[in-house]
Write a structure and sequence with these properties.
The protein is mostly helical and 316 residues long. It has 2 domains: 44 residues, no CATH class; 233 residues, MetI-like fold, CATH 1.10.3720. It has 15 helices and no strands. It is globular, with a radius of gyration of 29 Å.
Length: 316
């Protein structure tokens, strides 16, 4: 009596290899698919606008050319027009003064507060949170509050100064050409202190306590510990804070626009406001794009210097 043996059907080798190849392909491309949304976002909101800006800076772009779709190539004429404009040179000086003054005081005050909050003191968490309110508020809200405070007729700043007899008459903080820029600088310092404090505090908390304990055993006082331990180990963090602060402060537009609008007589017209006035006030988008491109090149140069200093700091 013969027995029936069930033999499995033969499967083609090509068919069995397809699922393996597909799994291998998905395994290879899978990580890149997760990056695809971020890449598309960067292309749409960073690469395309920057590329368009650079192209416009070499063309004659205004309302008429945008309507007709014809933007003649003019080469470096937009850059020559912008650089030869005294208002552009004035805006460059205003931007540098505004940026440097803000960075210096933001860093000094932020570092001092970071040193304070790095200590074990009562309610330190509550104080840190209260300081961060200035950073959490939208810039438009902070600028509007400062504008109310600095009004010459009903501002609380003039009221307090007159109450303690420091001034005899109200001061025009935002309309006086000698004071307007410094009033804007003070407002920007207040907004930027929490950012500096939080990053510097994170850097301080990364320093080992054993280093300070060893320094105390060697007889070093508080100033020497700060000079020979804290400052050297905070160089990388400080470079990062100053670099990010420079990029952010040089591009400040909303704060100045709400407080002074670039006035009086353009003493607070920084480069972003100058570019806005040229592009959307005079409808010369080509020259406005040239100003924005010059700002981009300035930031690119500063970023290159920062990366060089940071790499040298890491290899030292």
């Amino acid at each position: 009596m013969s027995t029936l043996v069930n033999t499995p059907p033969k499967v083609s080798k090509a068919i069995t290899q397809r699922p393996v190849r597909r799994r291998g392909m998905f395994k290879t491309l899978g990580p890149y698919l997760f990056l695809l949304p971020a890449v598309l976002f960067l292309i749409l909101f960073l690469v395309y606008p920057v590329g368009t800006m650079i192209v416009y800076s070499f063309e004659q772009v205004n309302v008429g050319s945008l309507l007709t779709g014809i933007t003649p190539f003019v080469g470096l004429d937009n850059y020559h027009t912008v650089i030869s404009d005294p208002d552009f040179r004035s805006s460059l000086v205003v931007s540098l003064v505004f940026t440097v003054a803000s960075l210096v005081f933001q860093y000094i005050i932020g570092f001092s507060m970071a040193l304070l909050f790095n200590r074990r003191i009562p309610l330190v968490g509550v104080m840190r949170g209260s300081v961060m309110i200035a950073w959490m508020l939208p810039v438009i809200v902070s600028a509007t509050i400062f504008k109310w405070m600095l009004q010459s007729d009903s501002g609380i700043v003039n009221y307090i100064l007159q109450s303690v007899h420091l001034i005899s008459s109200p001061v025009d903080w935002l309309t006086n050409p000698k004071l307007a820029l410094w009033a804007v600088v003070i407002a920007n310092i207040w907004i930027g202190i929490p950012f500096n404090m939080s990053l510097l505090l994170a850097g301080l908390q990364g320093i080992s306590e054993a280093l300070y304990e060893a320094a105390v055993v060697d007889g070093a006082n508080g100033f020497r510990r700060f000079l020979h331990i804290t400052l050297p180990l905070m160089r990388s963090t400080s470079l990062t804070v100053l670099m990010l602060g420079f990029i952010y402060t040089l591009n400040v537009f909303d704060l100045i626009y709400v407080l002074t609008g670039g006035g009086p007589v353009n003493v607070t017209e920084a480069m972003p406001l100058y570019a806005y006035r040229i592009a959307f006030g005079q409808f010369d988008l080509g020259s406005g794009a040239a100003v924005a491109t010059l700002m981009f090149l300035l930031l690119l140069g500063v970023s290159t210097i920062y990366l060089f200093l940071l790499r040298r700091e890491e290899t030292a």
